[in-house]
Amino acid sequence: MRFDIATLFPEFMESALNESIIGRARKKGLFEAHCHNIRDYTLDKHRRVDDAPYSERQGMLMQAQPIYDCYKSVCEGRNPHVIYMSPQGRTLTQAKALELAQMDEIFILCGHYEGVDARVIDKIVDEEISIGDYVVSGGELPALVLIDSVVRTLDGVLSQPDCYEDESHFDGLLEYPQYTRPEVWEGERVPEVLLSGNHANILKWRKEQSLITTAKKRPDMLEKLTLSDDDLCILHNELGDFLKENV
Known about the structure:
- The strands form 3 sheets. This protein has a 5-stranded parallel β-sheet, sandwiched between helices. The chain has a two-stranded antiparallel sheet with strand order 3-4. Strands 8-9 form a two-stranded antiparallel sheet.
- The chain is elongated.
- The protein is α/β, with parallel strands linked by helices.
- The longest helix is centred in the C-terminal third of the chain and has 19 residues, at about 200-215.
- The protein is about 40% helix and about 15% strand.
- It has helices spanning about 10-15, 20-25, 65-75, 95-100, 120-125, 140-150, 160-165, 200-215, 220, 230-245, and strands spanning about 1-5, 30-35, 50, 60, 80-90, 105-110, 125-130, 185, 190.
- The two termini are about 40 Å apart.
- α3 packs parallel to α5 (about 120-125) and α8 (about 200-215) runs parallel beside α10.
- The protein is built from 10 helices and 9 strands.
C-alpha cells in the first residue's frame, strides 16, 4: 500500500512516520509513504502558496495551482484515491479505516491557513475526511491519525489480527478494562476472573464489560447495534438505574 502526502511540512511528517509501530512497518516495506512539499510546485519566486480569499474573511487561503501541479507530478500515470483532511468531511471511523486499507494507493492533501481554494478540491478530491468536530491548524496531524489507523490493520504490522480486532470500535463496542501486574495496587485487586485461567469465563467477562463500558461512556453507540436478549439482560442487571436516566 502506498500513501502520498501533499504538505507544507514534509520534515514533520517524515519524523512522525518513522517512529513506533508505523515506523517499523515502513522500514519493513509493509507500506510506502512519500511526503511532497507543496512549495516545490509554486510559480512564486518567494515560494508562496497562499493568498487572500475573495471575501471579507481574515487569513490566507492555499492556492489551487501549486496543489494541482503537485498532484499531477506525483500521480502521473496513476489514479490514487484522493483524500482532503477537512473538518467538513465525514468523521473517520474504524470501519472507514478498514475500507481504506483495501486500497492500493491513497493521495492525502493537507490543508493549512484558512483552507484550500475550492476549485482544486472539486477537481481532484474523491472524499473529505475529518478526525472530529473541531478545528486544528493544519491537515498534517489528521493525516497522521488516518495513516496510523489504516496501517495498523495491514497484514504483518501488528503481531496478529486480534491486536486490533479486540480493540474499541472494531465491533461497535468499547474495549473492556485492562489490567497488569501487580495483582493488588493501592488496595484494588485485579478481577478474580482474569486470574482464573478459565478462557471461556474470561471471554464472557470481556463481553459483559465491553457492554457496560460502552453504556456508561458512549451510550449513543448502543443505538447503532442489534443487542441480543442476553446483552440486554446484562445491561439491565448491571446498569438498570443508569440506563433509565441516560439511554
